[in-house]
Write a structure and sequence with these properties.
This protein is α/β, with parallel strands linked by helices. Helices cover about 35% and strands about 10% of the residues.
Length: about 675
Amino acid sequence: MSKKSKKLKKMVMSTLATSVLAATVAGLTFAAPPDHSNAGGKKAPSVEAHVKPIIKIGQREFKDLNANGKLDRYEDWRLPTKMRVADLLPRMSMEEKAGIMQITSLGANPDVMNDYVNNRHIRFVIIRDNPTAKELATRANSYQELAETTRLGIPLVFTSNPRNHINEQNQFGISEASGQFSTWPGTLGLAATGDIELIRDFAEITRDEWRASGIQKAYGYQIETATEPRWRRISGTFGEDPTLNAKISRELVLGFQGEELSSKSVAQTIKHYPGDGAVLNGLDPHNEQGQWAVYPTAGSLFKYQLPPFQAAIDAGASSVMSYYNVPKNEGSAVQLPKELWYSESQQFEEVAGAYNKKIITDLLRDEMGFTGYVNSDSGVLTNRDWGVQNLTIEEKFAKAIDAGTNIFSDNNDPSGLISAVKKGLVDEKDLDPSVSLLLTEMFNLGLFEDPYTDPAEAQAMADSNEFQARADEAHLKSITLLRNNEKMLPLTDQKAASTKLYVEVFAGNNSVARTTALKELIRKEEPSLTIVDTLEEANSALVMLRPSPYENPVDLNAPVDIKLGTNTGINVDRVKEIQNKVPTALVINMNNPWVIDEVEPGAAAVVATYNVKGEALLDVLRGRYNPTGKLPITVPANQEAVDKNASDVPGYAESYDYTYTNEVGEDYTFGFGLSYEK
């Protein structure tokens, strides 16, 4: 933990102590961890049971998880995890093993969760809604009690996609929640800061908030290299540079997990191995037409796609999520050494990652040294079963397990796996390696001793001003000044006194609402600025562009459109009209490397953002913060450059003149960014 993060944590914990004291006075009680050590000098963990008995041996406490009146090895926290797993595994029925190998979205109500836990033996669940931290903790506690009542008392593991970023448009698998914890810029914004210590603090703060709220596992982060500019999930990555991504990957794993998993950790499930970025035409792999990954550049897999995953593995990532994609032989250059080829004549087996043994066992485990578990992406057994559509559900389970998949995402029905065992397609002993890995994570996270959290403490941590102050630094540091040759920025107090500012936001169907919201924010935060309602009254303008990638709903195989225009939600003619009338500061939310060649030249100043708070943007525009952000992606010169791009190569590494160059000769390439001249 960095010095700054330690200081923040100390301040927050002081606040929490006050909150807990106040709650205690009000009649609430909280379990405190024991202060004694065992004979080996290891500090005793917190042990909390709501249903099962507690066994006391001297001063030490243990949960009698199977309520048999004696201390079994799997209940003894003094023993190594390997011994505890070895004791628990043979106690489990085949049905219990099959259930623990599924991870599903949280049940809609307690009756559904009771069915999941008691009848289907599911122990991994995904939180997709957006309650407060207190509500999360309260609900998690109630479901942990349900798990504690079961025969063996195996606890639940609660999982979430990212929920600490500004999330203007919820997207499945990128983030589905925001605003309840410290709020940071988008992941591209974190990369744009270039501040590795800040990113480590982000991971540690997020870890503390999540663990306090009862979340112990993260579906994240997307550490893949963004090499196809049309890919709509670039907004969930850290950009196009594998070296920077590798550095960030390491900090994320160490920040969320620590040097090793413990009762303070949030286990990371890094995704989507071996890199979702090389998608054909930018199409979404959630859809059948977007299933293909293509590698036209020899050696690109090892050079650009794998380094972030290797860094995360070396840092001890607990699990890896395989990608949906099918690696396509046609159009792909040589990527793998011959011994990793699927056959003498075929480099790749053309099946999705969860079924691809060469990719997730031979490459990930044997070559890269991964020792954790492989988590499939959601729906690979049903509607996203690319390459294995003709297999039965039993055959899919059998093939995926043989390939090296250990847990199946968003599947709440283990009956297919149970049937595969009964039909002889899977031997029960073939479940044991997967179950062992999953139990190992649970034991290391301390969940068998104490899966419960304090809702009041969770909310106090989520509301921490100190945590948000650190997040606000990231917002400021992410904002990237691309051009200011006319010295329009910053809008100093002297300039503001005579400024009559016209404001308009372009964001497709949300343009009017977003324009109104931005005007209200400026009036609140910047009363010295005069906002006018018509262009005719103005002597300057602030134009904000918030485009979205466009996938053609009719021609499903058409390349994704990232050129600013009607499809992406931008009225280019209107933007030009404003620029021709008054000097315009153009702010572009760069959550994709947009084609901006029609609107960039007419602006007096150009700024890139990555889902940041409006207050931070105003601080930069007004000069209270001198911009330091750097582009985490390369902006393409034009549509022709996009069309020619190699899907497996970052923009800065393209073999032709790919990059946009502005009127003063500066390239908007990875790592570019200006500051105000002093």
